[in-house]
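Shipment paperwork, digital attachment
Item: protein structure file
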Amino acid sequence: MGVLGSSLWWKVVVMKISRKKFISDSFILSAGSFLLQSFNVDDEIVMTVNGPLSSQKMGFTLTHEHIMADFIGADKFSRDRYNPDEVVMVALPFIKDIKEKGVNTFIDCGPAYLGRDVNILKRISDMTGMNIMTPTGYYGAVNEKFVPAHAYNETARQLADRWISEWKNGIEGTSVKPGLIKTSTDKGPLTPMQRKLVGAAGITHLETGLTIAIHTGDGAAAFEQLDILKKLGVAPAAKVWVHAQNEPDSEMHIRAAKLNGWVSFDGVNPATLQDNLIYLKRMKANGLLGQVLVSQDSGWYHVGEPNGGDFKPYSCISTQLIPLLQQNGFTSAELDGIFKINPAKAF
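Attachment content:
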């Protein structure tokens, strides 16, 4: 969970407040009662589609994946474009497969207007026992194709109020609450809309404690995002640089990690194994594995294609990357750090 300020004292105070606010905002039900299953007030908590979860129970986590995506654009997006039962039927075997391989938590990074359907996510979570997290926020990359029209007429504060409402009241009339903020930008310099979305994400973080994950075109964009957030009082530790592999200059990865930002290499697939090995070896050599996240950006049911099109499995990390890292001297403790400890700290 992201925190504010630079001093250790301030970080501790904010984290305590955030945990208590999490319980206050998230556990109280409409009937006026709540159930604390296995938490105490000092637990670090993450929010899944089935409610709050102790971060210590996240286990092996894939931090950037997708179950469904619709690339039609915000102006044409509609729930009538897909059959939820078909989406569940197609995605279910792939989630079961990674559950059997030891994955415990799955962060679906599809925001509104790009295929987010929390009812589908909850159904799959219930059927598999997989902890699934979903975001609030809007997607500004791809020349703002997925930004709804109202965003152009609203301020960052007004957009943040929409996202904060999802945290307080649930997403689209459901009881499901977001576990992170997801937005995105193209390469730097950012457009006015992309800057507005990053600002709205910062405001939302300050009022909810949710971590900000930003799909990022290049390193210049990543540091422009950090500058926007810094001016709002948001610490680098509250932000995940999504798709850091898009920036070939490893010195930028190292610089961001030294600021305590999260650097996410989340394009793992059979064709990128060696590239990811190089990135991770460089981060290890600089003592920065503690700021690294790794995932695949795999899936997904493509709305508009027959039977969801070509669904990419989520298993490359388990079956190919981890053995490759082990062959190159990565220890069990280091792998646990990347896939278990770091996600719990980041989110």
